[in-house]
Amino acid sequence: MKTLSTSLILLVAVLLVDIETALGQCTYTSKPAGGNFNSPGTWIVSGEGCLGSSTPTTPTSTDVIKIVSAVTLDINFSLSGTPNGKESGVMTISSNGSLREAPEILRILNIDRGTLDIEGVSAPNTSQPQLDVSQLNVNHTILGQFIAKMRIGSNSTVNVGCLLLGNQGGIDLAQNARLIVSGNIDVQTGNGSINGSALSSSDLADVHIVGEFTGVNGGTRNVFSGNLTWCMEGRDRPNCAATGPVQDPPTGGNPFCRPLPVTLISFTAQTRPSGVKLDWATATELNNDYFEVQRSASGQTFAPISQVPGSGTTSSGATYSFTDPAPLAGSSYYRLRQVDRDGSEAFSAVVVVTGPQQLEALIYPNPGATTITLPTGTGQPVDYRVYTATGRTVLAGRMAGGTSFDVQQIPAGLYLIELTTAGQRHVQRFVRH
Predict the structure, then answer these.
(1) Calpha distance 272→270 (Å, rounded)
(2) pTM exceeds cut of 0.90
(3) Confidence at residue 41, expressed as pLDDT on a 0 to 100 scale
(4) In sequence order, what E strands does 253-361 have?
(5) Interatomic CA distance for residues 179 and 37, integer angstroms
(6) 100-159, pLDDT tens digit by residue?
(7) For a Cys staple, 302 with which of 23, 53, 294, 420, CB 3.0–4.6 Å?
(8) Structure confidence at residue 72 (pLDDT)
(9) Please, are residues 299 and 333 in contact by the beta-carbon 8 Å criterion?
(10) Could you confirm whether domain 362-432 is CATH 2.60.40?
(11) 392 Cβ partners below 8 Å, 6+ apart?
(12) Are the C-beta atoms of 399 and 416 separated by less than 8 Å?
């Protein structure tokens, strides 16, 4: 009986572990406006048992993560599995989504018994990778099996600084997919694989390595397989960690790396007194004709508002800036349409910014004004001038935003009030009874 009881206890314990694991995996879907990865406001949480107070407000390593908008990786993050092997983290980046670190803030994405799927897009888009991180680690899978833990869909682009391949860690690239490694590839323990799954030689996947191979001796021999092209520039990249010395690259690569296309490494928007300032930078450019700046009030339908010339072809990249002098009231959505000299195009991720508050006084009542309250929000004093339709000034001064003043002393009639502050100017009408 003692043996039987012990067996029953062990069985119940195993079942409880499985139940706990099943209840622990939640689905996190990014909201349309995106945001920081580690911000609760970025995510919609769903799944049975995943809406209680004990549910983490941001994704954990074993959750299902669906990125359908622009998300900034503001922490180092791992996709991993449970100890019993029943579940593992799954991250999907949709054709409209992206996961990128903030400019000049290095982040690590670790795939260890987890799965990363980057969905394909309708046309090649190398100017704005769906995944862009400083270091990507693709580690081992289920013991004794080789299953690719990262898949890059057709026409999609991934840009990483340093790539670490662990034991049996694999990356599959579909047709016309592209993997750009601006640093080194380190093969930590051998058996790592980068595989092309294209169906024909006309739509091969492509791997471009700016740095070198480091790691275990002989571990580079079988890294590349399937239908893909690859090249290695062999530049020294000391910022990438190495588990072994520099290794000879495997045979079969293209000894002449073609220039990288336009690779956008940052795109930001900031509210300024003069409007909304957009800044972006490229790492490399190939036949870049121009950037078309587009704006939207909803984030769905965009219209062009300006055009900025590109730098043609450059291996050192370039920086650009444009200020929208008349942003929309409330939120404005911006994106870039990059156009090559042959007419091909690619679109950036979308950035959203709240423009300057409308410079408007509160006139009460109107008609019949007795009191005017100056607008707040600029943080600076407001110059005001009340004048008649013929241009004669009847009141003028400077006060802090939010301050009210009386206009009962001026005669009845139609007036205009001119407001000026922080580089903004606004005129509105009112009637004094």
Answers:
(1) 6
(2) no
(3) 93
(4) 263-272, 275-296, 303-314, 318-324, 331-340, 345-347, 351-354
(5) 23
(6) 887 667 899 999 878 899 999 887 766 567 898 989 999 865 544 445 479 999 999 898
(7) 294
(8) 92
(9) yes
(10) yes
(11) none
(12) no
- Residue stretches of the chain with pLDDT short of 70: 1-24, 82-86, 103-104, 125-128, 140-148, 190, 217-219, 258-260, 273, 315-316, 329, 355-358, 377-379
- Rounded distance between C-alpha atoms, residue 36 and residue 153, angstroms: 24
> Within 13 Å of residue 311, how many CA atoms lie on the same side as its CB?
18
The two beta strands, 108-111 and 131-138, are parallel
Cis peptide before 59 (omega within 30 of 0): no
**Phi-psi region at 215: left, alpha or beta (left = phi > 0; alpha = psi -120 to 50):** left
Q: What is the distance between the alpha carbons of residues 129 and 116, in angstroms, rounded to a whole number? A: 15
Q: Pull the structure tokens for residue 126.
A: 């190398």
DSSP 8-state secondary structure symbol assigned to residue 81: B
Q: b/e map of 194-208 (b: 16 or more CB within 10 Å)?
A: bbbbbeeeeebbbbb
In angstroms, the CA 65 to CA 117 distance is 10
Length of the chain: 433
pLDDT tens profile 386-401 = 999 888 999 999 998 8
Per residue, the 3-state secondary structure of 331-354, as one string, reads: EEEEEEEEEECCCCEEECCCEEEE
CA 117, CA 151: separation in Å to the nearest integer?
Answer: 5
Q: Is the peptide bond before 367 cis (omega within 30 degrees of 0)?
A: yes
CATH class of 263-354: mainly beta
Going 238 to 242 to 245 to 250, the CA torsion angle's sign is negative
Show contacts of 29-35: CB within 8 Å, 24+ apart.
29/66, 29/68, 30/66, 30/67, 30/68, 30/69, 30/71, 30/97, 31/69, 32/68, 32/69, 32/299, 33/69, 33/299, 33/352, 34/69, 34/70, 34/71, 34/72, 34/350, 34/352, 35/71, 35/72
